[in-house]
Design a protein that fits this description.
Chain lengths: 169, 125
Amino acid sequence: MDAYGFCRDMPGEIIFVYRGKITPGLVTAVAAVMDQEEQGVPVSERKRYYHVLVECLQNILRHEMEEPGTQSPLLLIHKKGGDLLLTTGNAMPRESEATLRKKIDAINAMDKERLKSEYLELLSSKGFSEKGGAGLGLITLARKSGRPLVYRFDRLDGGHVYFTLTVTL
Amino acid sequence: MQELIIEAGEKTPLIRCHPDGTIELAGKSIPENSVEYYQPVYEWLDGYVKEPNEETRIQMRLEYFNTSSSKCLLDLFRKLEPIHQSGKSSVTVYWHYEEADEDMMEAGDDYSTIVKLNFELVKTG
């Protein structure tokens, strides 16, 4: 994946680009950058950005593939129109694609009320499965964003795909 | 029972649990592995519910929390449901949120819907 080309061809203003291993320290660093950028924005909105950022990065942390040769994770934050767009990317097994597509499509079709009830249902369900908890994270993103989650799957070698997710704020 | 105090970290909240029934969480909760972090609190609560105070008050003063913490918080509240429902203790959650923070208010509202304890949303600022 040509990260530079990807960014160069991106319309709008780029605030932050990162490609590499997601580390706990990264979240703090990026949050500081975003904070600078969004000085004029009310605190509650900035908290929302922070929450979305943390959620996206921790999602990758949970599902990151350590195998050599797979494309490293990506984080891209840019402004387009009046919106702030947060894009994350990470490699995953091809088998995960179908289920993930279904999940996101279903979430995008839900209205605010439905999102809330789905969230509460998932939250209250028994069993704590960190990895399988992708449902809760995605719903949180959808709720915080208020817009459809935009995604893309690109084929990679070795039976993997590269999953890119954009959250609009 | 001993008091439990867990100091706040960069990504973890201050937690204080006192046998007199006052429990407090403050700060942010965004650890990658929240179950590990909250484990000592669960264990403390398992002990507390054997001999709870007549009144149990939980002060929630979180700035924000990630989704894995949200599950842990629910489990925390759930540990106190039996004593509340049996009448052994009157348990109230005081959910503090800043006036401008709609998301935090909504989160409190979410919990109040599914948690069978007394719930009070407290607006600050």
